[in-house]
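Late entry, zinc ion complex.
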Amino acid sequence: MKIFKQYQYYSKEQIESKANEVLRIMEVNNYPPKWPFEASRAADALGIMIDWQSIPPDTQGSIVAKILPLQRKIVLNELIPKLSGGFVESTIAHEIGHWILHVNQDEADGLTEQLELNLGLEDVTRYFLCRTVDTKTSQINMNSQLENIEWQAQFFASCLLMPLHILETTRKGRDLTNWKHLYAIQEELGVTISNLIYRLQSLGWISIPKGSKQIYLGKAAPNGQTNLFDR
Ligand SMILES: [Zn+2]
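Prediction complete; structure with ligand written out below:
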């Protein structure tokens, strides 16, 4: 058994239902979710610690956060100045996504005792580094397992932060094609505007043609490049 599961495909529906499970665990463990969403409450409900540390960049660039499954700990990088507000929430939610989708939890729990004897023991098989957890990661072309894994964690985060029933309530009386309204929703939910746009687009509620600021309702913008069969 390994700390990280072997790569597996998850459908969007599967990921969404895993995120909903975490929301239920929050209810049961007395950390009921509320909005603006505080992802640290989800971590509390799951018994995961959150810590801020300096994580210096490595040869591949800067690192936003990491998860240490054996220590049940998410480490956020205090060296990243823009890691604040909604970006913190989505980063924590993203790391929780790794915990739920990619960590072999029985193995992590079983090895905790061993780890206590060996504190500081860390190698590449025992933690997970996340370089960027903004929309760029969400829209990556999925040509490698690592990118898929990052996409899965980010999609999980968007489902956890913005569950369907909350979005349905929040959109009432609002015009999703109006940026001002979107910014109001963003603030209400405690997410970044790019998190919100990504979620609404992946639900097919809005579309924004590449390079444009114009928002259209529904999946395909007029003359847009969205797949016609996807309507
Ligand atoms: Zn990640």
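The radius of gyration is 18 Å. Will revisit in the morning.
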